């Protein structure tokens, strides 16, 4: 359920953050020895940068709804910025714009049997379709409960209640709990993934849990036991101050 005053935000994020820190590294194809290294970073699957400042899949109202949701799942407090300011909604939109959103890299042919909870989603809809249907169902539920208002117009406590209803499946939308879990999963990924993918703005998620980022060499520090790592976190793409121009994410 969404974090509340009785639910420790630090416990919620710290217990899940480490699950999303290791980025997938494309496998290198074996080659005969030619005197040069056979592997290059992202040689098989380079991230495709998507400039910021626009939505690629979400409509303006869908984007406002997602921004409101991620801000309730990860609200801003004295520890860090919230989900919206961390770019979690932007991360979700960019992922939906790529192969994840269309399930291009998954087997999506039938039959579609009901799977175990440990097997994940087993249906025919792509993530884009699940977001479209789920966001529409969420606003339909909210409008019926709160005098025609949209989710992003509600007070924080009302938004929390609507999300709790979805998490518990107490709405007129059968996949409600599955949709809630999908958005929760994607929100946490956006908060802790490498900033190159559009979320984790200014590496706020990494700073929150003390993750040093994608550094290739720790030999100077592996014997420094019980001492904080002295360097700031580092993205796959480097640090923003190392380059000029707009920041770009990937999908």
Descriptive account of the structure:
There is one protein chain. The protein is mainly alpha-helical and 251 residues long.
Outline type:
globular
Q: Give the proportion of residues in helices.
A: 25-40%
Arrangement of strands in the largest sheet? 1-2
Number of strands: 2
Task: Show unreliable segments.
Answer: 22-33, 244-251
Oligomer: single chain
Count of alpha/pi helices: 8
Order of helices and strands: HEHHHHHHHE
How many angstroms separate the termini?
27 Å
Give the class from helix and strand content and strand pairing: mainly alpha
- The percent range for strand residues is under 5%
- Characterize the main sheet: 2 strands, antiparallel
Q: What average pLDDT do the residues reach?
A: 83
What Rg, in angstroms, do the CA atoms define?
A: 20 Å
What is this structure's SSE topology?
Blueprint: H1 9-17, E1 50-51, H2 60-73, H3 88-97, H4 99-102, H5 127-145, H6 156-167, H7 176-192, H8 204-209, E2 248-249
Antiparallel strand pairs: 1-2
List keywords for this structure.
251 residues, mainly alpha, two-stranded antiparallel ribbon, globular
Summarize the structure.
With 251 residues, the protein is mainly alpha-helical.
